[in-house]
Write a structure and sequence with these properties.
Alpha-Beta Plaits, 3 helices, single chain, 2 domains
């Protein structure tokens, strides 16, 4: 079957119109999407100053919280080592039949002797018990026989009043 010129012309016009309609639909969708994107961009640009201010405020709060944390840490001198020392002191007290009624520690400091650096913590320990048990406790601290950790203690002061003793000591721990 042979198509006439007129049919080819109509067929070409239909194809051209279909292509134009397809392009119009694609253009319309893209124009609609561009409008949505512009609207979202405007919304984002409107929110940006507020978010920037919020970010700066949060950074200021973080700096303030970090400063407060550092200040709080300085107010609590007990370190992990002093907690471990406390465990040993309580164990020695149990072995010597005395009861620790108060235990306080100072901020650990470093003391260098030759090439070795020691962590030095000062402790005040208040114990209750019989005089013999208190003296046994002091002796055990001085000799270090009952220590679980690698540290030694220097008793710097003892005050005994009845069944209560206040003992001041420095604990030397090896720093690696």
């Amino acid at each position: 079957m042979k198509l006439t010129k007129k049919v080819w012309l109509i067929l070409g016009a239909v194809i051209l119109i279909a292509a134009l309609v397809g392009l119009y639909i694609i253009y319309f969708r893209q124009a609609e999407e561009l409008g949505d994107l512009n609207e979202r961009l405007e919304t984002a640009e409107t929110r940006l100053p507020g978010l920037t201010a919020t970010k700066e405020e949060l950074e200021d709060r973080l700096a303030q919280a970090t400063s407060e944390l550092n200040k709080s840490q300085a107010e609590f001198p007990e370190s992990v080592e002093s907690i471990e020392y406390d465990d040993d002191l309580f164990e020695i007290a149990d072995d010597c039949n005395v009861h620790i009624t108060r235990l306080s520690a100072s901020t650990p400091t470093n003391k260098k002797v030759g090439a070795v650096t020691y962590s030095v913590s000062s402790f005040t320990v208040v114990v209750k018990g019989t005089i013999d048990d208190i003296l046994n406790f002091i002796y055990s601290i001085r000799t270090g026989d009952d220590f679980q950790l690698p540290w030694s203690a220097e008793v710097t002061g003892v005050s005994i009043s009845g069944a209560t003793a206040t003992i001041s000591l420095n604990i030397y721990g090896y720093k690696r």
